[in-house]
Amino acid sequence: MGRVHAETITFRVPSADVTAIFDPNGAAASEVAESYGIPHTADTSNEIINDPAIDAILICSPAPTHSELIIAAARARKHIFCEKPLERDLNRIDALLEAVNKAGVKLQIGFNRRFDANFARVRQAVVNGEIGMPHILHIISRDPAPPPISYIKTSGGIFMDMTIHDFDMARFLIGDEVEEIHAMGAVRVDAEIGTAGDFDTAVILMRFRTGVVGTIDNCRQAVYGYDQRVEILGSAGAIATNNLYGNEAVISTSSEIKRDLPLAFFMERYKESYANEIVAFVDAVKNDKPVPVDGNDGRISMLMVEAARRSYAEKRPVKLTEVASEAISTTAR
Amino acid sequence: MGRVHAETITFRVPSADVTAIFDPNGAAASEVAESYGIPHTADTSNEIINDPAIDAILICSPAPTHSELIIAAARARKHIFCEKPLERDLNRIDALLEAVNKAGVKLQIGFNRRFDANFARVRQAVVNGEIGMPHILHIISRDPAPPPISYIKTSGGIFMDMTIHDFDMARFLIGDEVEEIHAMGAVRVDAEIGTAGDFDTAVILMRFRTGVVGTIDNCRQAVYGYDQRVEILGSAGAIATNNLYGNEAVISTSSEIKRDLPLAFFMERYKESYANEIVAFVDAVKNDKPVPVDGNDGRISMLMVEAARRSYAEKRPVKLTEVASEAISTTAR
Amino acid sequence: MGRVHAETITFRVPSADVTAIFDPNGAAASEVAESYGIPHTADTSNEIINDPAIDAILICSPAPTHSELIIAAARARKHIFCEKPLERDLNRIDALLEAVNKAGVKLQIGFNRRFDANFARVRQAVVNGEIGMPHILHIISRDPAPPPISYIKTSGGIFMDMTIHDFDMARFLIGDEVEEIHAMGAVRVDAEIGTAGDFDTAVILMRFRTGVVGTIDNCRQAVYGYDQRVEILGSAGAIATNNLYGNEAVISTSSEIKRDLPLAFFMERYKESYANEIVAFVDAVKNDKPVPVDGNDGRISMLMVEAARRSYAEKRPVKLTEVASEAISTTAR
Amino acid sequence: MGRVHAETITFRVPSADVTAIFDPNGAAASEVAESYGIPHTADTSNEIINDPAIDAILICSPAPTHSELIIAAARARKHIFCEKPLERDLNRIDALLEAVNKAGVKLQIGFNRRFDANFARVRQAVVNGEIGMPHILHIISRDPAPPPISYIKTSGGIFMDMTIHDFDMARFLIGDEVEEIHAMGAVRVDAEIGTAGDFDTAVILMRFRTGVVGTIDNCRQAVYGYDQRVEILGSAGAIATNNLYGNEAVISTSSEIKRDLPLAFFMERYKESYANEIVAFVDAVKNDKPVPVDGNDGRISMLMVEAARRSYAEKRPVKLTEVASEAISTTAR
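ok -> structure tokens follow
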């Protein structure tokens, strides 16, 4: 993702420059720096964090490194863009949010899908009242193929790795908080995923505070490709999105009417949304606007992951207040 | 078609009864009579035409028999429903229309496609002004497979056999008369069709009196099935129809996104329109309303067939006034 | 529904005749008898049940009358078609099934949607292995508008009135039994429905014995019309159905690309499936084949309704074995 | 278009640099140079043409300047990318092609639509035999709104301004030359366009050398947006493309099922194809490959424009051999 964001800033954000990058793998850093004309590759992350000429940093490292980097950056008064998940440990989330708040810096979380034209259109329809008051939400989010078992083992589980995006999407689309979650999971695609302690198929039932009910459908394998759709029924109508395709050609033969498969995976499907989120972050920093996805959004998505885990383990619906005694005090945008 | 209409009247038109049928093939007539509880199979068509208890007759016999039957029926003061083409000889059309007019009976032509829900919706959009003033019309009308060569030989040619429906559709949808026709034809599907003196593929360019331009696309073979679509561009929008399918299921596999083929041929595709036209005919007869497709419609479609033939033979655009010196005096509905 | 079935047998089933009908409302019975040429209107249901010339009866009366009529008909050795729900009391279901089994008569339940071309195609895809082994099922089943409150009060609740069809659909499509149900319900459409002790919106999570997971989405009001769709993800692909429309015309204007609303309600949407189920029943009776939807299907759908009710009331997933201690011994087709 | 190509080379073509640009409007040139970090703005086009450090030039100036610039560039041994139309005068086309051939430089014409994913997929289907041997081609190409009358007056007419793209598309998709053209035109959108000596609506009938027949539909105004579709019927199937949209969301309301309008105009619709053609040109120059759209393609498109003009003026089909006595010696790819 570091490379993707470097490319976006270089080519699409004239008002910002990537002045330095750091990667423990120095060769990788040099290669990216050369590709995008980045003047400096740092020897440590601190070198970047403490550079007074730098306004903001993007954290694209593995999740376990996030809280330490965020806290250091906040202390150095840098604005921060951090990839999801914000941090796997709920206590450390509280600590890093405190540091961010205290420093008064901006923290944006990489829930890029909010910036996808399809999902943004759905949110717009809800906000505009085009479908009235929402009643039911469905999110379908399936990968084309499972990752290697080695990845599964360190992924934090399907809820943290896949569903977290959908949890954020649910809050974003409805504009309300989920109160209760009931998660069913199954090993359907690959028994080794089960052996690794995870599952590959999940269906989740959610109830929002305002009474909206919703489902999430996740699977590690949809053989026809990356399947990313949502649908909302409201009091005045419904809105549903379809997948995106590389072309719109329809071929009719003597056996079927057909088209080519949808865009293959997230890099193709969410190309524009990855760029859009960075454009929005730079805009927030430069013009001192609120970031569109903040630390609280990162925190609540993790509360939902934890509620889903408990629900799956205990085979019962779990309220978010069971996970964090403290009430969710803010409302999603 | 006789059987189809007998079924419609029996099952869908409570206000009318089929009291007698005639077919030179007596066994066929008896079989149909039995299927639909028709009380009488006549020995001659005149027996029916002259039966004072009968109000209307349906002529479903081959084209060369039409004018004689129509004239006889008109003289017997019977209302008449006649399959297309009304009559292949333009002079005889004039004669039979005169007989019909003189007798004051109704004559409806079997252009059933006007009664199809898709095409009726297109016409409604034009009439309602939903797409503004029409500019361009496209008609696509392709059969799933060519008929036997023996049929081709007596078909009267592709313009009389296939395009005649589309000529009527063009007038119906636009509500205006075609002034000029330029037809290109080609033998693409089966060389034997060429040997038989016909062609199997045609594209026709038309200009209407009001300046609307249009095309017709005909082919004896679309391997994916019966392809029947129209599209109109107008000053305030456009309307286009799609084919009809036996089911709406979409299957996604590792190689494609697909659906089953459209409804196979005219008996499936136009099932409802065949019934609707008879319902409309009975309604016109019983309630003394104008028939929705009259003798003039039958005549003009034949003028268009003749213009297309000349255009193809002489490789040039042909005006309808070249075919019939007498101006077309009425306007299609 | 009695009228619908009478029309089907009269017009589409040449091998069967409706010889008598009974309705407590004699005028209604006479009107139907006249419409379809039915020779006799009985004074009591027993008159029909005990008529030795009659082979089979169709029960289209309210649910509370079903078990008594079924038991009487079984004793009279009549084959039986019964509308859903089979019977609301689980104990009485056991009793009537025993009577039917003892008499050796056929009992078909009116789960007509199995005979819809769309859903039949989905089932065929599963049986043929076109999508591999099913993983996840989604059923969406929404009415265009809520019924009167008076109807709601005697409907038996949304699970019995609406969801029962979807419970049967779930078993039919997957070909497996549901083991556990978790139902969430909400009053979203009309507060009076809540006052009447029911709710109008429901989302249900199901786990099948083989591990397939599924959801059902029900709402009493989808303002755009009757919304009836299903979708299955399998190991080798997916299949999804769309709604049915009165026409396929697409209109493009300066503000949107649009089409007319889908078929309005069940009488239009399921017209063919209502006919098909009767054709299948007559075929089963005349040719001594098993009925396609039997008494056991009627019983299990009621067990699911009961499990959904408990789940909703107790806010927890409920196993079907909690509802009926006796294991479900047969497998859905 | 100069700006568009400068952006493409800067951001998408690492192997090439824009080293200098010229525009008679110096301020415009400076602004573009600054936007994309172009080191030099020249005072004359010759300054660029004669710069020995420059390998290739892109000509994005008005059509009347093309031949002079091309000839000068060819003499200076520069490879050339030239926007369409290549040159309006057929004799001058011959002269410039001779200069290009003599110099042995590459000349690519800006028929960018060949590089659009939709149309490229259609061509691929033809080449792969996915639809068998082509029979009938339809091209629909409508602008969202007419340009100002001042533009119309210098546009060279609708055939040169709009249809030229479709003429090239016809040759590209079928891979064969058009033999005969019959063009009908009409003033439907704006009477002032007629006053300016042009028309705004055209339907064109074409016959290819191999007997394929085709149509082109052009209109200066489709109120729903930029409409760019093609369709081919072949012996083994058909392929059709749909428009591209900014999102795939479908909204269902109580009055209709709808979606937002398609991408607005050529800059949105053909964004990728403009980039792709430049990538292909640089690749051809750097790796000494044939250009994908060459001077002959530019010449033939102008022969077709001329044939269409004559056909419209003389109200008859016109053969391309009437326009240029010399046979078309090469075949389109």
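The domain at 114-266+295-323 of chain A is CATH 3.30.360.10 (Dihydrodipicolinate Reductase; domain 2).
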